[in-house]
Design brief:
Largest sheet: 13 strands, antiparallel
Structural class: alpha+beta
Radius of gyration: 22 Å
Shape: globular
Strand order of the largest sheet: 1-13-12-11-10-9-8-7-6-5-4-3-2
Distance between the termini: 52 Å
Number of helices: 5
Number of domains: 1
Helix content: 25-40%
Order of helices and strands: EHEEEEEEEEEHEEEHHH
Protein backbone atom coordinates (compact mmCIF):
# COMPACT_ATOMS: atom_id res chain seq x y z
CA UNK A 1 0.00 0.00 0.00
CA UNK A 2 1.23 3.49 -0.86
CA UNK A 3 0.40 6.50 1.34
CA UNK A 4 0.55 9.96 -0.23
CA UNK A 5 0.31 13.37 1.45
CA UNK A 6 0.32 16.95 0.28
CA UNK A 7 -1.05 20.22 1.73
CA UNK A 8 -2.33 23.29 -0.12
CA UNK A 9 -3.66 26.71 0.84
CA UNK A 10 -7.06 27.58 -0.62
CA UNK A 11 -9.66 30.32 -0.34
CA UNK A 12 -12.17 29.66 2.43
CA UNK A 13 -15.95 29.56 2.03
CA UNK A 14 -18.01 30.23 5.15
CA UNK A 15 -21.13 28.31 6.24
CA UNK A 16 -23.36 31.35 5.69
CA UNK A 17 -22.49 31.45 2.00
CA UNK A 18 -22.92 27.70 1.59
CA UNK A 19 -26.34 27.88 3.27
CA UNK A 20 -27.38 30.75 1.01
CA UNK A 21 -26.23 29.01 -2.16
CA UNK A 22 -27.91 25.71 -1.27
CA UNK A 23 -31.19 27.51 -0.59
CA UNK A 24 -30.79 29.50 -3.80
CA UNK A 25 -30.38 26.35 -5.92
CA UNK A 26 -33.54 24.89 -4.42
CA UNK A 27 -35.42 28.18 -4.83
CA UNK A 28 -34.47 28.41 -8.51
CA UNK A 29 -35.53 24.81 -9.15
CA UNK A 30 -38.81 25.28 -7.29
CA UNK A 31 -39.57 28.48 -9.20
CA UNK A 32 -39.97 26.36 -12.36
CA UNK A 33 -43.08 24.38 -13.27
CA UNK A 34 -44.02 21.74 -15.79
CA UNK A 35 -46.56 21.96 -18.59
CA UNK A 36 -46.66 18.61 -20.30
CA UNK A 37 -43.07 17.63 -21.01
CA UNK A 38 -41.88 21.26 -21.02
CA UNK A 39 -40.30 22.79 -17.93
CA UNK A 40 -41.05 26.50 -17.69
CA UNK A 41 -39.26 29.32 -15.93
CA UNK A 42 -41.23 31.90 -13.90
CA UNK A 43 -41.53 34.16 -16.98
CA UNK A 44 -43.20 31.33 -18.92
CA UNK A 45 -40.24 30.58 -21.14
CA UNK A 46 -39.01 26.97 -21.46
CA UNK A 47 -35.86 25.75 -19.78
CA UNK A 48 -33.46 24.99 -22.62
CA UNK A 49 -32.90 21.32 -23.53
CA UNK A 50 -34.79 19.91 -20.53
CA UNK A 51 -37.87 17.67 -20.84
CA UNK A 52 -39.98 15.98 -18.17
CA UNK A 53 -40.60 12.45 -19.44
CA UNK A 54 -42.06 10.74 -16.37
CA UNK A 55 -43.68 11.61 -13.05
CA UNK A 56 -44.55 14.93 -11.45
CA UNK A 57 -42.15 17.85 -11.57
CA UNK A 58 -39.68 17.87 -8.64
CA UNK A 59 -41.36 14.92 -6.97
CA UNK A 60 -39.71 11.60 -6.15
CA UNK A 61 -39.62 9.49 -9.30
CA UNK A 62 -39.64 12.41 -11.75
CA UNK A 63 -37.42 11.74 -14.77
CA UNK A 64 -35.98 14.27 -17.19
CA UNK A 65 -34.05 14.12 -20.45
CA UNK A 66 -31.29 16.65 -21.06
CA UNK A 67 -29.94 17.78 -24.42
CA UNK A 68 -31.04 18.15 -28.02
CA UNK A 69 -32.19 15.37 -30.37
CA UNK A 70 -28.93 15.41 -32.32
CA UNK A 71 -26.65 14.99 -29.31
CA UNK A 72 -24.49 11.85 -29.40
CA UNK A 73 -24.30 11.83 -25.59
CA UNK A 74 -27.52 10.89 -23.82
CA UNK A 75 -28.18 12.49 -20.45
CA UNK A 76 -31.01 11.89 -18.01
CA UNK A 77 -31.90 13.19 -14.56
CA UNK A 78 -34.06 11.52 -11.92
CA UNK A 79 -35.36 13.02 -8.68
CA UNK A 80 -35.00 10.43 -5.91
CA UNK A 81 -36.07 12.74 -3.09
CA UNK A 82 -37.11 16.40 -2.84
CA UNK A 83 -37.95 17.47 0.69
CA UNK A 84 -36.23 20.62 1.82
CA UNK A 85 -36.84 19.80 5.48
CA UNK A 86 -35.12 16.42 5.04
CA UNK A 87 -32.98 16.00 1.91
CA UNK A 88 -32.70 16.58 -1.81
CA UNK A 89 -31.32 13.67 -3.82
CA UNK A 90 -30.91 13.57 -7.60
CA UNK A 91 -29.37 11.02 -9.95
CA UNK A 92 -27.76 11.82 -13.29
CA UNK A 93 -27.12 9.21 -15.96
CA UNK A 94 -24.84 9.69 -18.96
CA UNK A 95 -24.68 7.40 -21.95
CA UNK A 96 -22.07 7.77 -24.69
CA UNK A 97 -20.63 5.39 -27.31
CA UNK A 98 -17.47 4.76 -25.27
CA UNK A 99 -18.58 5.39 -21.68
CA UNK A 100 -21.61 5.15 -19.39
CA UNK A 101 -21.86 6.73 -15.97
CA UNK A 102 -24.33 7.24 -13.15
CA UNK A 103 -23.90 9.83 -10.38
CA UNK A 104 -26.12 10.40 -7.35
CA UNK A 105 -25.90 13.50 -5.14
CA UNK A 106 -27.66 13.86 -1.79
CA UNK A 107 -27.76 17.01 0.32
CA UNK A 108 -29.27 16.71 3.79
CA UNK A 109 -31.40 19.63 5.02
CA UNK A 110 -30.74 21.94 2.02
CA UNK A 111 -31.73 25.16 3.82
CA UNK A 112 -29.03 24.49 6.41
CA UNK A 113 -26.85 21.80 4.85
CA UNK A 114 -24.59 19.74 7.06
CA UNK A 115 -23.99 16.61 4.98
CA UNK A 116 -23.23 16.15 1.29
CA UNK A 117 -22.88 12.67 -0.17
CA UNK A 118 -22.09 11.46 -3.67
CA UNK A 119 -21.81 8.01 -5.18
CA UNK A 120 -21.29 6.91 -8.73
CA UNK A 121 -20.12 4.25 -11.10
CA UNK A 122 -18.87 4.09 -14.66
CA UNK A 123 -18.62 1.32 -17.23
CA UNK A 124 -17.65 0.93 -20.85
CA UNK A 125 -19.75 -0.38 -23.73
CA UNK A 126 -21.01 -3.95 -23.69
CA UNK A 127 -18.17 -6.40 -24.12
CA UNK A 128 -15.46 -3.94 -23.03
CA UNK A 129 -14.51 -6.05 -20.02
CA UNK A 130 -14.19 -5.54 -16.28
CA UNK A 131 -11.22 -3.16 -16.57
CA UNK A 132 -13.54 -0.50 -17.98
CA UNK A 133 -15.56 -0.44 -14.76
CA UNK A 134 -15.20 1.57 -11.57
CA UNK A 135 -17.16 3.06 -8.69
CA UNK A 136 -16.73 5.68 -6.03
CA UNK A 137 -18.23 7.39 -2.98
CA UNK A 138 -17.63 10.76 -1.37
CA UNK A 139 -18.88 12.26 1.89
CA UNK A 140 -18.44 15.73 3.36
CA UNK A 141 -19.65 16.38 6.91
CA UNK A 142 -19.98 20.14 6.70
CA UNK A 143 -20.42 20.71 10.42
CA UNK A 144 -17.19 18.84 11.14
CA UNK A 145 -15.49 20.73 8.30
CA UNK A 146 -16.40 24.14 9.76
CA UNK A 147 -15.17 23.02 13.20
CA UNK A 148 -11.86 21.78 11.80
CA UNK A 149 -11.44 24.91 9.66
CA UNK A 150 -11.90 27.08 12.76
CA UNK A 151 -8.74 25.66 14.30
CA UNK A 152 -6.09 28.38 14.54
CA UNK A 153 -2.91 28.34 12.44
CA UNK A 154 -0.39 25.90 13.84
CA UNK A 155 -3.00 23.76 15.59
CA UNK A 156 -2.96 20.01 14.90
CA UNK A 157 -5.42 18.98 12.18
CA UNK A 158 -8.68 17.25 13.04
CA UNK A 159 -8.20 13.63 14.09
CA UNK A 160 -11.09 12.49 11.89
CA UNK A 161 -11.22 13.70 8.30
CA UNK A 162 -14.51 15.55 7.61
CA UNK A 163 -14.24 14.83 3.87
CA UNK A 164 -13.54 11.36 2.48
CA UNK A 165 -13.49 9.82 -0.99
CA UNK A 166 -13.24 6.13 -1.92
CA UNK A 167 -12.63 4.92 -5.47
CA UNK A 168 -12.67 1.28 -6.55
CA UNK A 169 -11.42 -0.34 -9.73
CA UNK A 170 -11.08 -4.09 -10.37
CA UNK A 171 -7.31 -3.72 -9.92
CA UNK A 172 -6.87 -1.05 -7.22
CA UNK A 173 -8.66 0.81 -4.46
CA UNK A 174 -7.87 4.37 -3.38
CA UNK A 175 -9.04 6.40 -0.40
CA UNK A 176 -8.66 10.15 0.00
CA UNK A 177 -8.96 12.11 3.27
CA UNK A 178 -9.19 15.92 3.49
CA UNK A 179 -8.56 17.86 6.71
CA UNK A 180 -8.73 21.68 6.85
CA UNK A 181 -7.44 24.11 9.43
CA UNK A 182 -7.28 27.89 9.59
CA UNK A 183 -4.50 29.60 7.67
CA UNK A 184 -5.54 33.21 8.33
CA UNK A 185 -6.51 35.91 5.82
CA UNK A 186 -9.64 34.08 4.70
CA UNK A 187 -7.84 30.89 3.71
CA UNK A 188 -7.65 27.26 4.70
CA UNK A 189 -4.67 24.95 4.83
CA UNK A 190 -6.02 21.63 3.56
CA UNK A 191 -4.10 18.40 4.04
CA UNK A 192 -4.84 15.75 1.42
CA UNK A 193 -3.85 12.20 2.34
CA UNK A 194 -4.42 9.21 0.08
CA UNK A 195 -3.85 5.49 0.33
CA UNK A 196 -3.62 3.26 -2.74
CA UNK A 197 -3.52 -0.53 -2.74
CA UNK A 198 -4.23 -3.49 -4.99
CA UNK A 199 -7.38 -5.57 -4.71
CA UNK A 200 -7.93 -9.26 -4.21
CA UNK A 201 -5.17 -11.53 -5.55
CA UNK A 202 -3.44 -8.57 -7.18
CA UNK A 203 -2.39 -7.03 -3.85
CA UNK A 204 1.19 -8.44 -3.88
CA UNK A 205 1.68 -7.44 -7.53
CA UNK A 206 0.24 -3.99 -6.94
CA UNK A 207 2.41 -3.53 -3.84
CA UNK A 208 5.56 -4.12 -5.90
CA UNK A 209 4.35 -1.85 -8.70
CA UNK A 210 3.50 0.92 -6.24
CA UNK A 211 6.90 0.58 -4.60
CA UNK A 212 8.74 0.87 -7.93
CA UNK A 213 6.59 3.81 -9.09
CA UNK A 214 6.56 5.54 -5.70
CA UNK A 215 8.38 8.71 -6.77
CA UNK A 216 6.31 9.19 -9.89
CA UNK A 217 3.12 8.45 -7.95
CA UNK A 218 3.95 11.06 -5.32
CA UNK A 219 4.70 13.68 -7.98
CA UNK A 220 1.48 12.89 -9.79
CA UNK A 221 -0.51 13.15 -6.56
CA UNK A 222 1.13 16.45 -5.63
CA UNK A 223 0.46 17.90 -9.07
CA UNK A 224 -3.17 16.72 -8.99
CA UNK A 225 -3.76 18.31 -5.57
CA UNK A 226 -2.11 21.57 -6.66
CA UNK A 227 -4.23 21.67 -9.81
CA UNK A 228 -7.42 20.98 -7.86
CA UNK A 229 -6.53 23.81 -5.45
CA UNK A 230 -5.93 26.16 -8.37
CA UNK A 231 -9.33 25.36 -9.87
CA UNK A 232 -10.98 25.75 -6.46
CA UNK A 233 -9.39 29.17 -5.91
CA UNK A 234 -10.46 30.37 -9.35
CA UNK A 235 -14.05 29.20 -8.81
CA UNK A 236 -14.31 30.62 -5.28
CA UNK A 237 -12.80 33.96 -6.30
CA UNK A 238 -15.42 34.26 -9.03
CA UNK A 239 -18.15 33.20 -6.61
CA UNK A 240 -17.13 35.77 -4.01
CA UNK A 241 -17.05 38.44 -6.70
CA UNK A 242 -20.50 37.53 -8.01
CA UNK A 243 -22.21 37.13 -4.67
CA UNK A 244 -25.54 35.34 -4.23
CA UNK A 245 -27.39 37.80 -6.49
CA UNK A 246 -24.84 37.33 -9.25
CA UNK A 247 -25.14 33.55 -8.99
CA UNK A 248 -28.92 33.85 -9.25
CA UNK A 249 -28.59 35.88 -12.45
CA UNK A 250 -26.08 33.41 -13.89
CA UNK A 251 -28.38 30.47 -13.15
CA UNK A 252 -31.26 32.21 -14.89
CA UNK A 253 -29.04 32.87 -17.90
CA UNK A 254 -27.90 29.27 -18.09
CA UNK A 255 -31.46 27.96 -17.84
CA UNK A 256 -32.42 30.11 -20.79
CA UNK A 257 -29.25 29.49 -22.82
CA UNK A 258 -29.92 28.14 -26.27
CA UNK A 259 -33.54 29.25 -26.18
CA UNK A 260 -34.61 30.43 -29.66
CA UNK A 261 -35.79 33.97 -30.14
CA UNK A 262 -39.59 34.18 -30.24
CA UNK A 263 -41.58 36.33 -32.58
CA UNK A 264 -44.80 38.10 -31.63
CA UNK A 265 -47.30 35.23 -31.73
CA UNK A 266 -44.95 32.82 -29.98
CA UNK A 267 -44.22 35.38 -27.28
CA UNK A 268 -47.95 35.86 -26.72
CA UNK A 269 -48.37 32.11 -26.37
CA UNK A 270 -45.50 31.90 -23.91
CA UNK A 271 -46.98 34.74 -21.86
CA UNK A 272 -50.31 32.89 -21.79
CA UNK A 273 -48.52 29.74 -20.62
CA UNK A 274 -46.84 31.79 -17.93
CA UNK A 275 -50.24 32.75 -16.46
CA UNK A 276 -51.30 29.12 -16.05
CA UNK A 277 -50.40 27.33 -12.84
CA UNK A 278 -51.05 23.69 -13.71
CA UNK A 279 -48.16 21.32 -12.99
CA UNK A 280 -46.71 23.57 -10.28
CA UNK A 281 -44.14 22.05 -7.94
CA UNK A 282 -46.23 23.39 -5.06
Amino acid sequence: MAVLRHSVTVLAVGPELVDALASLLCDVAESTRARGTTVLMPDGQPVADLRLVKGRHLRAGARYEIGGPGDAERMALRVREWRRTAAVEVEQAIGAPDLNARLTLRLAAPDRPRLLEARGRMWGPEGSGALRRGSGRARIELGAWWSAAALPPGAPPAARAPATVRVRHPLVEARLYLRPRGAGDGRWLVEAAASVRGRWLLRPVAAVALLLAGGQLRRGFRDAVEQAAEHWNEAVAELLEQGVDGVREELARQLAEGRPEKNGSEKDGAAKDGSERDGSAG
